[in-house]
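Hey, sorry to bother you again with one of my protein questions. I've been staring at a protein lately and its backbone has me curious. I owe you a coffee for this, so here goes:
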Amino acid sequence: MALLTLALFSVACSEDGKITVEFEKTLYTVHGGGSVDIAVNVSEPAASDISIGLLFSGSASADKYAAGFDTVTIPAGETTGTVTISDIRISQDEQIAVGIGRCPSGYATGTKSVTIVTVDAEELLICSFASTSDNAIGSYRARIDVSGAVSGKNLSLNEDVVIPLTASGAAASYLNFGGEPHALLKAGDNVAIAEFSLNPGFEEGAEVMLSIKEGEDRILIGNNDAITLKLYGAEIPEALLGTWTFDHVFDIEEIEEFFGELEDDITLLPTHNEGFTLTFEKDDAGIITVTPNDKGDFAKFFRTASVTPTEPINYSSEGIVTGMNTVSEINMFMAMEDYDVHTCSYYMLSEANRAFSSEDETLGEAVVIFTLVEGGLQVEFRDYDTPPFGEMWWDPEFDADMFGFASLFVK
């Protein structure tokens, strides 16, 4: 009925021999949450500014979109004027109908007297970097928060979406994305990840800027459109690649004695890891991924994750930071097996179960040590939440010796 009313109104002001006024298009399709510029044309340039009345109707209620004006102005000497409809939050079975209402004196409506606005299945994505500055050590994993223009933080897509980025700065060419700079939003997630490794040759401390590419279909830029990164070299050793099998926790007897002295239940300690493995792989972009199997207590913590060099945290009390991701230190239980002070390399896991429990899962980033030592691979924890073990020893200030559970893995 609304469309019929619009059509009848427009026909009523149509007269032969006059300059015609009509919409440029009869259908506009936009992403949900987006906006659209509706163009109105006249058949001859206007002699002076003219104002053309518009009628808004259709099945969509007026509170589901914003139309700033109910008129469109065509400047003198021009043939086109536009009006913007924004914040369009209609459903796919709804539509906005816009009709030409009042015809100025000497003008008549043309054949395109009504235009329809509909939405497609893909809403606009609002993208914003989670942080605005950081250090990239050897490689990096940038997080971009994504919300739906309609669904907000409840965004849940059925397909992966690639978010194009731009890299700028003198060292931008050293960023290796394995293709064009981009972030990947996986189906069901609301955080997109941009991962890259660093090719050798850049100056230590060089700055680059990663920006969300403007003007891309479906992408709206949120509060933080870019992140500035300082680049530092930290190569992940090729010798780390492959599958490593748990051998033992260093000086387990002494560890159990320490915890037992305070009447902690030593059977709850994550020291039972027979058959547990970690497999390290590198993709074409140089990104290292670690994949655990499901055997043993360490499987309660590890998840498949990217491995990125990171600044050291929670290192041993006498540790000395020697590099962007290294500390010269020794876990006291390793020392009891005659290991000396050595350089430990710190890495950020993109995902781990910070609850360190089979009964609870709190996924998030976490810091660990992966260091090649005599006899194999040293694995040590540096960051997780309050665990279901060691209650009497636990302190908010992470005790690297007691809760690092320094272990040896072998190939």
About this structure: Confidence is low (pLDDT under 50) at residues 1-14. The longest helix spans residues 2-12.
